[in-house]
């Protein structure tokens, strides 16, 4: 199963908090329904966004994963399929995986900003913690409880509280990430999560054995 992706929401300042949001939907929402804000994605310079990847640069297969930290199906993939993918293909030099953020709601944006706060070397470790703890932090009291739970995950990854606060209140980064997400999703025609681009081919979420067959077919070319 997947979560459907609708229109991109606007980046707004969350009332009284200093954190940024896409819209006011809850972590269980399935679509982005608010129109984009004052600046369109084409007016935002996204060149500063670091593309998070794992695996050898010269791997014969590149997989671009589109996922949201508030998507339960993405969490399920990361707790099973991703670990198998890493052992079978990434760690053996056959696959390079690139992670592209998708934002269904403000909480997914905040989680992404926490994951990115530790830099590329900590991103996938923090992402694992976020997906593993999704049922806890995404269901905490809104919005302060969610913020505090996300900060706990950041601190568990060794990031100091002042740095976490700075990451979560970085308006420019929030706007840039949203624009980057929109650019990527429109370019690759993404309408649900998780979705994958395997050597340029769009692949929807599927059982791991079927996903493995797609990868093996690419490796056989």
Automatic annotation (TrEMBL):
The question of whether Oxidoreductase is a record keyword is answered with yes
Q: Which domain of life is it from?
A: Bacteria
Keyword list (alphabetical) reads: Disulfide bond, Oxidoreductase, Redox-active center, Signal
An example of a GO molecular function for this protein is:
oxidoreductase activity
Which PROSITE patterns does the protein's record reference? Answer: THIOREDOXIN_2
> Which SUPFAM superfamilies does this UniProt record tie to the protein?
Thioredoxin-like (SSF52833)
Q: What does the record list as coiled-coil region(s)?
A: none
Q: Which residues form the signal peptide?
A: 1-21
Q: Where does the Thioredoxin domain lie? A: 20-220
Task: Output the InterPro entries linked to this UniProt entry.
Answer: Thioredoxin-like_fold, Thioredoxin-like_sf, Thioredoxin_domain
Q: Which PANTHER family match?
A: DISULFIDE BOND FORMATION PROTEIN D (PTHR13887:SF14), GLUTATHIONE S-TRANSFERASE KAPPA (PTHR13887)
Family note: Belongs to the thioredoxin family. DsbA subfamily.
Its function, per the record, reads: May be required for disulfide bond formation in some proteins.
Q: What is this protein called?
A: Thiol-disulfide oxidoreductase
């Amino acid at each position: 199963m997947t979560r459907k992706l609708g229109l991109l929401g606007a980046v707004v300042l969350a009332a009284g908090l200093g954190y940024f949001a896409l819209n006011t939907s809850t972590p269980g929402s399935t679509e982005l329904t608010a129109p984009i804000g004052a600046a369109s994605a084409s007016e935002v310079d996204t060149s500063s966004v670091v593309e998070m990847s794992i695996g050898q640069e010269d791997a014969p297969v590149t997989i671009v994963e589109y996922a949201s930290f508030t998507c339960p199906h993405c969490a399920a993939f990361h707790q099973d399929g991703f670990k198998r993918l890493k052992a079978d293909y990434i760690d053996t030099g056959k696959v390079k995986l690139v992670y592209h953020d998708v934002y269904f709601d403000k909480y997914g944006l905040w989680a992404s900003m926490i994951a990115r706060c530790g830099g590329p070397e900590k991103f996938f470790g923090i992402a694992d913690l976020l997906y593993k703890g999704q049922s806890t932090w995404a269901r905490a009291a809104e919005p302060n409880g969610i913020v505090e739970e996300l900060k706990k995950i950041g601190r568990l990854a060794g990031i100091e509280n002042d740095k976490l606060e700075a990451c979560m209140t970085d308006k420019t980064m929030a706007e840039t990430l949203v624009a980057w997400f929109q650019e990527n999703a429109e370019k690759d025609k993404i309408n649900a999560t998780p979705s994958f681009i395997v050597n340029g081919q769009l692949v929807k979420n599927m059982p791991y054995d079927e996903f493995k067959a797609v990868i093996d077919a690419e490796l056989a070319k």
